[in-house]
Design a protein that fits this description.
Blueprint (H helix, E strand, L loop, with lengths): L2 E6 L15 H15 L3 E9 L30 H9 L5 E5 L14 H13 L4 E6 L2 H15 L4 E4 L11 H10 L1
Helix pairs in contact: 1-2, 4-5
Length: about 180
């Protein structure tokens, strides 16, 4: 079986920055350990990242609902260090795909970014991926939206949600409901 590890938005702003998720630091450190121990199970590892322009429409002071977060080239947009080290040290490294890089468009799923979705789809096809293991931040928002889009885009691929590495703003309720619907 060829598996893809898809880690959604493990960025500083979602861990200790402007939009923190409770338990995110512990979950991302545990995920770093998982990557060190299990990375050889994966044909490819992909990390997604919010990559917002400074005046992104989703920011509260721009008329949106979120505090300013994951601004391009900012410290808050960086990948969590322990996870970054684990991914860089793993066989084959990882591929980084961006979303939310258009000033006027919210993208809660990597599949909503045409360029990144195209790259992901080509990689899945070329590498003959059978299963996607997904996790990241926040479980009830970007992980959930990406998981839903993955199931509708890749109909013949098994989706496995790594819930321990997907803390949520809602305590995990929405993601848990979705995982229940997959069974």
């Amino acid at each position: 079986m060829k598996k893809l590890l898809l880690i959604v938005d493990p960025q500083i702003d979602f861990i200790t920055g402007t939009l923190p998720v409770a338990g995110a630091a512990e979950a991302m450190d545990a995920l770093a350990k998982y990557v060190k121990e299990q990375s050889n199970e994966y044909t490819i590892k992909i990390v997604t990242a919010d990559w917002h322009p400074y005046h992104h429409s989703s920011f509260a002071d721009e008329g949106g609902v979120w505090p300013r977060h994951c601004v391009q080239h900012s410290v808050g947009a960086a990948i969590w260090e322990s996870l970054l080290v684990a991914l860089n040290d793993s066989k084959g490294g990882f591929t980084l795909l961006y979303k939310g890089d258009s000033i006027d468009k919210d993208e809660y799923s990597i599949m909503q970014n045409k360029a990144s979705a195209s790259i992901l789809a080509r990689l899945v096809k070329a590498l003959k991926v059978d299963q996607i293991d997904i996790c990241g931040l926040a479980g009830d928002i970007c992980v959930l939206n990406t998981a839903k889009d993955i199931t509708s885009t890749f109909e013949n691929i098994k989706l496995n949600v790594l819930e321990p590495y997907s803390p949520s703003l809602d305590g995990g309720a929405a993601l848990n409901d979705f995982v229940g619907s997959l069974k």
